[in-house]
Specification:
alpha+beta, 4-stranded mixed beta sheet
Length: 206
């Protein structure tokens, strides 16, 4: 059964809203398709990372300057330095989460503008800390992929848009119960194929 979104042109979209976990279909018409995640996850991540940063700094200061530890500088100073390093990395990670919280996490294809907008997945370089949304022309889309990540108890399914520069834009992901895996996969395939058509690509499975 199709999920219908009220727009100027009433069209059918994939019936996936009930299986997308935290994500929702926020636009589905002839000109585009958009998935949006609620901000609660990034808010919690930002606050959790901020607490970790503050805790690392506080503990580092105590270890480095507590007079009761005088004479043990050969141990306390390197340990404090390690804590400050953790705090520095944490600041960058907190900044990324805060930007994702502020701008929202979404994946949107705009057919009229011929663009795709999304939140980049971590790639292991300094660009990971940018955190804000990325908008690129559809010509830079290399593939739309439905990725399967099996685990012992559950399997995670995730949609992503892969760009020619190597970056990947985050799409809906869900960990269905084993008994619902086939149904959820089928509905995500429908969503992925709709997304791929708007991008002028075919859905690939990995």
């Amino acid at each position: 059964m199709a999920h219908t979104v009220s727009t100027k042109a009433q069209v059918s979209a994939p019936a996936v809203d009930d299986v997308l976990g935290a994500w929702h279909v926020t636009r589905a018409d002839a000109g585009g398709l958009s998935f949006t995640a609620p901000s609660g996850d990034e808010r919690r991540a930002t606050l959790k990372k901020a607490v970790t940063v503050l805790g690392s700094v506080a503990l580092g200061v105590v270890v480095a300057f507590d007079p009761r530890l005088a004479g043990a500088e050969s141990f306390t100073w390197p340990f404090a330095g390690l804590l400050f390093l953790v705090a520095g990395i944490g600041v960058a990670s907190t900044w990324r989460s805060a930007r994702r919280w502020r701008h929202g996490v979404r994946l949107e294809v705009d057919g009229a503008r011929r663009t795709v907008t999304g939140s980049p997945l971590a790639g292991g370089d300094l660009s990971d800390f940018h955190g804000g949304p990325l908008t690129v022309p559809l010509a830079e889309v290399e593939a739309v992929a439905l990725c399967t990540y099996p685990d012992k108890d559950k399997t995670r399914l995730a949609l992503e848009v892969r760009l020619s520069g190597g970056q990947r834009l985050q799409g809906p992901d869900v960990e269905p119960a084993p008994e619902h895996l086939a149904e959820v996969r089928a509905r995500l395939v429908g969503a992925g194929e709709a997304l791929a058509r708007l991008c002028g690509r075919s859905l690939v499975h990995t």
